[in-house]
Write a structure and sequence with these properties.
CATH architecture: Alpha-Beta Complex
CATH superfamily: Spore Coat Polysaccharide Biosynthesis Protein SpsA, Chain A
Structural class: alpha/beta
Strand order of the largest sheet: 5-4-1-6-8-7-9
Distance between the termini: 41 Å
Order of helices and strands: EEEHEHEHEHEEHHEH
């Protein structure tokens, strides 16, 4: 069975929301960050790595799972810096990594099935990159085969997975994640998607 890892990028400072989106409670003490970790763990696709940056101490202490924490002190340079920090850590700590799934912590409709769908498509062996196709657009979570790891490590600090996908579209297969374009960036997002 291929050996994988899941990399959750959660290093930002939530400037548009005005408070930590990582710590937004979505139900009975469950935060966005912990829900994303739990969803990843339930997929059983591999070890879970979480890249933190802004408010590292506060966010790391809030995590209630046994995950690998990576501190990106250069988080403000952009998502590419976090992706590269995570990938480098995974490559150095696992003898063999056949694929990584890159995810984020602010997609409220993310489910374990979304991770499993990526892996199911990957097993077909047709494409080295499997991305989530939204109602509008595409993006994370996205699975990258180890055949593109070196290219990912060449990303600019301010460039994320989306730019990499657009440059390499001929290498990308897609699986549906209808509400994947919805993330929590503003207070309106909270009211529209997380209000009980």
């Amino acid at each position: 069975m291929p050996k994988g890892a899941i990399l959750i990028l959660a290093a930002g400072n939530s400037s548009r929301l005005g408070r930590s989106k990582q710590l937004v409670e979505i139900s009975k003490g469950q935060t966005l960050l912990n829900q994303s970790i739990q969803t990843a763990e339930q997929s059983q696709l591999g070890e879970v790595y979480v890249v933190l940056g802004a408010d590292y101490k506060m966010h790391s202490e809030s995590i209630n799972s046994q995950v690998h924490l990576i501190e990106n002190s250069n988080w403000s340079a952009g998502m590419g810096s976090s992706l590269k920090a995570g990938l480098a850590q995974i490559a150095s700590s696992q003898n063999q990594t056949d694929f990584i799934v890159v995810s984020v912590c602010d997609q409220p409709y993310l489910e374990t099935e979304n991770f499993l769908a990526l892996y199911s498509e990957f097993k077909k062996g047709d494409k080295p990159i499997i991305a989530s196709k939204y109602d509008v657009g595409f993006g994370v979570p996205v699975l990258f085969s180890n055949s593109v790891f070196n290219e990912l490590l060449q990303l600019g600090d301010g460039e994320g997975a989306l730019k990499f996908l657009k440059i390499n579209l001929e290498q990308v297969a897609f699986v549906d994640f209808k509400k994947g374009n919805i993330d929590i960036d503003t207070q309106d997002d909270l009211l529209n998607h997380l209000s009980n």
